[in-house]
Structures are given as structure tokens and as C-alpha cells.
Amino acid sequence: MIALSVRTERFTLASPLRASWGELREREVLIVRLDFPDGLWGEGEAAPLEPYDGVSLGSVRAALDAYASVLGGLEPTADVLAACREVADLPQALAGVDLALWDHASRRTGTPLARLIDPRAVGAVPVNATVGVADPAAAAAAAATAAREGFRCVKVKVGLSGDAARLAAVRAAVGPEVGIRVDANGAWRTTAEALERLRELEPVGLELCEEPVHGIEGLRAVQAGTKVPIAMDETHAPGAGGVRAVCLKITRGGITGVLADARAARAAGADVYLASTFDGPRGIAAAVHTAAALRVTRSCGLATGALAARAGVIEVPQAVGLA
């Protein structure tokens, strides 16, 4: 039998994040622990963010409680994820179980997680810095600091007032060699609005724009109307095609979910990269290991404090497990 238990962890962001969906100052995540008959254990993390993904912490906790009832009567050789999915097919809850399973497998085999996923995993993952402040001067200062620290890409939240002025200030602060990525979180309501806003922002030089609008057809239409590479994020349809990149999240089904999404996106001709929803340490570690195993070359949005970034990269942990 497998015992599942859950506890809560809270942490405060180093600085508040301002996005089109609201402001984030504090995170609360659920730590999922699986205890196995072999005496070993694994811990994962379930990290919904309701303002962003519409999934409440309460609904995830309820799903995990249901999983605990099922796993208590399950043999260790059974397909744990499939058994949980039959009870509640909630990706944010399944992610916590999935990470715990990978954590256990890494500990049991004594293999660092990235190499367990793929022996060809790289040793470091490129990452971007995120600028989530609305004031142009503050945004420029944050971007300049990131550039001095060695980041070769900064991501700026847009869909707020004064986007063009803020982006111009950021470009002036970082110079021509640092990539600027923008993230609208679907704030632009129509294709026409998105294309108009991108025309305003394009002169600063954009590496890509994440989720200018929500929905597959809207994203395809925006990509067809602009030279700026468009990345799909909240619109979770990695194999749909029509965009240049897909942003993958550990919260959507864990490592197993990301690997499946990456295969679908690449088959559709899109680049992939990973980002967090300001997850806790286990979620960030899982994403770094997965990005290394996928040999991602685009900068990933994982420099959120759980693992130290130096010169624009995060070194992949070589210890076993996620903690």
C-alpha cells in the first residue's frame, strides 16, 4: 500500500509581481508525500494559482484527499497516476503525485532526476529574469540589474497601462544584446487589438510574446499577422500548431505531463521552454531537471529564487530527489 499525506507551505515573494490578472505577493502550495512499502518516500508539490489558472487550492486538496483513499488500497506495482486520474482528472493535483513518484524513483535508483528522465540531459538551463513592475523607471532598474547579473533575456509583463514606455525604458537599460520577451497573459481581447499592441512594441525588438490572446484560433491569427514569434501558454493545446513556441508548466500534470506536452509541441513544429507560476522549491527543481532532460535552448522562466541563477543559467542539481 502507498500512504499519501499533504501539508501546506507558504512563502513570500522577494518582490511583488504585477500582471494583467492581478498582483502576487505570497504563495501557498501543497506538499504531497508518498510513503512506500520499501521504506522510501517521495515528495512532490501541487501549486495551483487561482487568479492565473482558475484552480483553487481547496479543489486540489479535495482531489488529493480522494487520491489518498485510493492509494491506500493500491499495490505498489499498479499505475498510480492512472488510478488517481480515474478519481479526479485535475492536472494541478496530479502534478503533486507525479513529482512525488519521480522523487521516489530518483532516491530509489540513486540517479539525479534529469539523468533519470534522459541520460543525455544537459548540465545547465538558460533562464530569464522577470520584470513585473508597471513603473517604467522601476522596470528599467530591475532589467538593468538583471543584465549586470548576466541574464541574457528579460521577460516583461504587458497588458498594463504604459506598455510602450515601459518596454522602451527596459531596452534602453539593457542595451541591444539582451533579449526582451513580453507576456500579455491573454490581456488583449481580440486579434486586432493584439496586433495593434505588438506593432507599438515591436520597435524595441522582441524575442517573443507569450499568450497575447486566449484560444487556439486567436493565437494562430495573431501569429499569422506578425513577425514576432508567438508563444502559447495559458491556452493549453501544445500539439495544435500555428505558433512558434509553447511555454510548459510543471503544474499541468507534473514531469510526465510536461514530457507529453513537449513531444506534442515539437511534433507540431514549435520550440518549447519551461516556466513556473512562482512555484515552491520542489516545483522549480522539477522544472529545471525536466528542461535539462529536454535540452531546452530558449531561456526558461525559472529564476524565481528557489535555485540560484548565475550568469543567466541554473546549474542542474546533481543530488538525488527534488529536495
UniProtKB/TrEMBL annotation:
Residues 136-229 form the Mandelate racemase/muconate lactonizing enzyme C-terminal domain. GO terms for molecular function: metal ion binding; racemase and epimerase activity. InterPro entries: Enolase-like_C_sf, Enolase-like_N, Enolase_C-like, Mandelate_racemase_C, Mandelate_racemase_N_dom. Keywords: Isomerase, Metal-binding. Belongs to the mandelate racemase/muconate lactonizing enzyme family. This is L-alanine-DL-glutamate epimerase-like enolase superfamily enzyme. It comes from Solirubrobacter pauli.
